[in-house]
């Protein structure tokens, strides 16, 4: 049974029966990655067979007292009653992840897939089935964002109701700000572009870290308007540089959620036209998560943008699950090597070789290699030796408010 209301009712019954002396309860949301693409390619019957096989695999991995529900085309909900602590919940998640190390059987073709798990604890994270389900979903999103196989729910620092209302109002009122971080071309030594970064400050909470409000927006319905605001605010500042005869390219982060928006490619092209910024001056940064969320839709929209001259970068490369098959089909012009690899390569020979291999892969596929997280001269020199194309990081330049950045560039241009 995969009707959510029936599942929540069944989970609530289990929670109501829980006795404090017997321990805690945990609710886990397990999502199979790439199931929508699988169904579109091989049929919904094939997808249903895989989900049933996944359920059977999970049942084998958990205890006989645990309950497993198929919750949709790609999701399974698990209730773990009578566990001692959150560590036991994480051990259960580890067992479930390990159960998918071998492919799921199918008469036509075995499924080699990956899963991501979110965990919420009763009563620490909620006392109702709906609250626990929602918070397990939030933890799942954190696991995907961090490229981890599972994550446990962590409460937001600021109250959700206040944060949501304030963020929505400030997006609608254009009260967020843009910061620009420079990127340097390693061959010319020149600053060739900036990455646009959203910044938010409120009277009640002060400066809210991007690591807090952007994941929050991802979990809610605010990420699409936030992305739309970011595109227009970034292009407005870049347009000032173009009018001042000191043009720079701008890289803008796109959430995977925008790909389900009807006509998102046309919206971006329309914004470029409104602000008078050439399409070739825009780089859209897309995480590997977008490749797995809905490959067909992502490829169609980004190919439309590529055909019009917009460049596309795969962001945080190496931390997700993108394969060479995805790289072959995805219309990317740049590969951004994640900072976790770049920052570690001076102290770990194996990591250095991985970075070198990523640079070579980018070049062999006709893409630029961009290294983020360059924090010192030694790292920079090694990237030069690897023939990396573009770099960014605190050693290159820290993010600065876009208004100040543009004013300084225009003032410098007027002196030439």
From TrEMBL:
Record Gene3D superfamilies: 3.30.70.270, EAL domain
Entries under InterPro entries matching the protein: Cyclic-di-GMP_PDE-like, EAL_dom, EAL_sf, GGDEF_dom, Nucleotide_cyclase, Rev_trsase/Diguanyl_cyclase
Protein name: GGDEF domain-containing phosphodiesterase
PROSITE patterns: EAL, GGDEF
TM region positions: none
Alphabetized Pfam families for the sequence: EAL (PF00563), GGDEF (PF00990)
All residue ranges annotated as the GGDEF domain in the record: 23-155
